[in-house]
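Please check this:
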Amino acid sequence: MTRATESDVVVVGAGLAGQLVAGRLRSAGARVTVLDAGPAAGRTLPAGKRAFEARIAPWLELDTAAWPFRSDRRSHDWPRVRACGGRTLLWGGWMTAPSQGYFQHRQARQAPWPFDPALLFAQLPAAERALGVREAALRPAFAALRAAGWPVQGKREATAPRLRRPLTAADLTRAVRTIHGAIALRVAVDVAGRVRGVEYVRGGRIQLFKARRVVLAASPVESARILHQSPRCPADGLGASLHDHLVAGAIAITPRRLQSPPRRKGEPSSRGAVILPCADDAVRATVELRGPAGLDEFDDEDLQALGFDRVQARRRSYFLVFAMAETDPRAGRSVSFDGDERDAWGRPLPVFHIGKPTAVEHATARALRRRVLGAARDLVGPDGIVHLIEDGSSPTGAGHESGTLAIGAPGTAVLSTCGEVHGVSGLYVADAAGLPGATDGHPSLTIACWSLHVAEAVTAGLSS
């Protein structure tokens, strides 16, 4: 083992949660180092969408032989990104604020969250400032939906003034020291139950980075795997609950070529709108609308599948319509870690225990299909064409997993309500592992609020 280096705090993971925590702690005067499994993003990423996508394309190719997993469902998909910025490199900047209605909905169905959601709402202004959250003006293309009675509004997006694309976590580095290509193995803990740092492998060598505090933000499954490998971490509630979204989607094609108005200064860069859940919805679902765009963006094979040739496509536009709703919070899904099978770095394999969709999820999927097809048809009118592309029936693969580390009292859960791991002083989890639900919309802003809440607790612990 090589000679250790040292910081006040080590943050594992350079995605949304990790970057927000690192930035908050650095602003408070702490010495912070981030360990991330992926390559460096460089000083700046391109401001334009196409150049940005070309730059990040090599980072999105995951070596699945080195990062394997198993599931009891063949169709299970686990979206992952091993690069600075994490899955925000893919997200499109969607920012749906947590709502009181969602938490009341969970309470009414005897599945309340284990902490007061006021903890999240208290961080909402700071999270929106940090991410530059702005709402776009509703584009004329969505006027048909409003006329049909849909409560549609402009997309809320993470933005930055200089960018012509959505903000990503890779844009939030704030000069925090980051060690790239560092695969976290376990948290080092002394005999008194205090954090010593993080053991990681880089370039084939195992190293220890010493720190007074460690914050895990490696994703819900990876953070749970690190704790599983770490001494003195509680086993009760580790991996015992897994949540995600059911998603239904449609493509809506109009025979007209629609032009988007020019972007206004300070406005979100992406074309889109959203329909939020209503208070009396039996199924709380958010509908995301993306477009319009020229149908000729598709390649010839996809156009043929849709029934068009390239000449016809040049005269048409399309929208994408997605509806998402939380999986059944009482479904009993979980993640475990199989020590008999190992990945390229000797870590136990994640195993997803998904099972079949519940009766609640079957009903939810039907509601999602009705909602997405209804919105798509009203969007393009009677002369448009609508194709269902996702039917909402699968409880896996949306990429919004959460809840792998239970929050509650010592002996029954892994985390306290401030994100600290029971039994290990100075160890925290700031990603969605601690959130017992995917919420009723895009979860990024809720995760950001939780991350800043945990960062406050870490800051208070450093000064005590």
